[in-house]
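Hi, here's the filled form for the chain we discussed.

Project: internal
Contact: R.S.
Residues: 165
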Amino acid sequence: MKKINLPLKNYEIKKLKIGEEILLSGPIYTARDQAHKRLVERLKNKKKLPIDLKKAVIYYCGPTKTRPGAVIGSCGPTTSARMDAFTPILIKAGLRAMIGKGNRSKDAAGSIKRHKAVYFITIGGAGAYLSKMVKKAMVVAFKDLGPEAIYKLEVRDFPVIVWNK
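And the returned structure, exactly as it came back:
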């Protein structure tokens, strides 16, 4: 498996091949439906974003409650298609990569390709396993959304597969 340290560089995205297995290490953000909606609303209203999307990776995930002594609760991927309406706008704002599960709509896939971003999939149903790759986790935006808040995660050897680029 190829190892990549985040943030992703443009030349690294160029070299990726569909179906290639990758281990990601570095910072990623979690965000689901409601967080995406708020980010897009802020962009449309020309307000400052609570996170820097430039070269960011967003993991479509809403972690479960953290057990005592753990870094994070179970953190498996959610269905990516639910974020497709927001994807083109966020990619235009600098988003470089997304992690989730399932196929993307024609519009989202087209935006990923046009803007030279990348969509990774990871293992559905393996949230407890994936949580072991998270070394740090903290809420950085929209705490009121509970598990749908935006978390900044520091991951090591997080397994993904290149699905669209």
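Let me know if anything looks off before we file it.
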